[in-house]
Amino acid sequence: MENCQLEPKIFACRQSKELALEIAKHYGLKLGNVVISNFSDGEFQPALVDSVRGRRIFIVGSTFPNSDNLMEMLLILDAAKRASARHITAVIPYFGWARQDRKDQPRVAIGAKLVANLLQAAGATRIMTMDLHADQIQGFFEKPVDHLYASTIFLPYVRSLNLENITIASPDMGGSKRAYAYSKYLESEVVICYKQRLKANVIDTMELIGDVAGRNVILVDDMIDTGGTLTKAADLMMEKGAVSVRAICTHPILSGEAYDRIEKSQLQELIVSDTIPLKRACSKIKVVSCAPLFADVMHKVQDNRSISGQFLM
After folding, report:
1. Exactly one of 195, 279, 284, 300 is catalytic; which is it?
2. What's the CA gap between 253 and 304, in Å, rounded?
3. Which reaction does this enzyme catalyse, per its entry (predicted)?
């Protein structure tokens, strides 16, 4: 029984150190110490300085490419398992490789399932993440998954803008469920963009299903990578008579020419979370922190309390 009263520990992977510091601050703990030893060929070895025997620990790290970020999470999980931690929660604000969630053509990997297997084999007894690219990825795990929704942090910000005549838009058919969930809480209309791709990150055509004339449009998506889809959708909305176009994207991957596209686009504002650190500043990007949400849910997990009240979607 004594072990059950031990204070939990929070550790961070290097790619999510700033977010982990904020989470630990909101939780009311100091961040645990991880020392990384680097070899000349690029190999690295994490070591937990603090004792974790018999404790619940949380390891915070988004697994966006490059693959070193995923590998660091796996190595710290393994270190915690071998150090006799009682419960090991992998806190993965952005679950990378999630776009590979099915076999959509012959002879391809299902990367999301592979990553799920790796995390469990490394020692994770629980997974905590936010806005998975596909909900069914939860089923790839045999361990409990706490799937949080960024709408919890974004909706209060949207309401603070005091916009009238709001229309929620999905940049593709796959995001329609998310768009309808936002519209439910904002009591707004919904429109959907229909797009066809030539290949990954390259859009061939895009058409709008619905009317946006005279409306303040808010595009919602789980991630923004190159920015091609969102900026093209914003241009289309303005062509169709929208008053303004904003976008909410949980995970700011922002690769390639994304920053330049956003700056030059007709997007008035891009609202993102801090699941992935920004590579550089951008006048149009507003960051809303997810740290309080994760800290609150981690408290509830530690105390064995229900977290269902956190779900707005």
Report:
1. 195
2. 33
3. D-ribose 5-phosphate + ATP = 5-phospho-alpha-D-ribose 1-diphosphate + AMP + H(+)
